[in-house]
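Bug #2210: token dump truncated for OmpA family protein?
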Amino acid sequence: MKISKLLTLVAALMLVCAAPAFAAGQSTLVPKISSFDFFVDYSGSMMMSHEKTGKNKMEMTKKLLSAINAKIPALGYEGGLHTFAPSTEIQPVAAWDKASYEKAIKKLNENEDTFARMTPMGTGLQKATYAKAMKRKAAMIMISDGESNLGSDPVAEAKLLLSTNPGLCLHVISMADKPAGQATLDAIAKLNGCAVTAKGPELLANEAALDKFVRDVFYEEKAAPVAAAAPMDEVIVLRSIQFALNSAKLDATATSILVETAAILKSKKGSVEVAGHTCSLGTDEYNQKLSEARAKSVKDFLVKQGVESSRLITKGYGESKPKYDNSTEETRKLNRRVELSFIK
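Reproduced locally. Full output below:
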């Protein structure tokens, strides 16, 4: 079996940070958009309890914004945060980073007075003139309970906003607890074919759904191109070897893969670096020792399969050489790996 075939056969060596897991195949994250803005309903009804969950709708919104912010990969986005009812700019659309955006989220108050705070949703959409300056492709993510009881028709205003801003997509996260509010949000979402819709309470309760929402709005995964390598300049990435929690012991899946790896190494000449890597969870010291222990486990097994020990040079890199951003569990899994590199 050739090394190019092995690259598609084996999967990433799991370096445990919290609990063991399997990594996906090699891929790269590509942004779907250049800029985004969260457009948050700040009306009196959003300061009230959600009828089904019993929780304050704005408090849930803040938790959801923080959860989404934590999962957005660092792919050079611009991001902003605005409210309507009333219309305010919490953070202008500018270069996004997690820390500053989290500070902006904390400025939202879940205990605003509900008395006489009506919901002019249509007027809020009308005032979202900043959308014209957003880099394309752009995403406006509305979070609302859909209650609109003042001003112009929100569906008509949303249609006008989209028609005058090509390259803008309007996504909807529903905090609705009344049928009329949900119907308004559904009608807005149907205005553009690119819309991603979700219900806020469900995103908070289901991390898989939250991951999917972030992926659907912000990025896509594409297979990383495999560059042609000269003979003696090849890298084998082991992608499906699992360790038990806090253990460097290889399981049955790992050993079966390494048997094939050993056969390939014995068919070639030259020294090989066995490099262990981790994700960013845990201390630097812990991850360094963990990466070294896992690399050594792989080497020891390969030696037992007949690969000369003197050819195998173990090296632990800890978390120092990530291939992907460590902001989501998916990308952290891709960073938990072992690579075998032929040394010239």
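Output looks complete on our side. Residues 1-25, 226-233 have pLDDT under 50 and may be disordered. Marking as cannot-reproduce; reopen if the truncation happens again.
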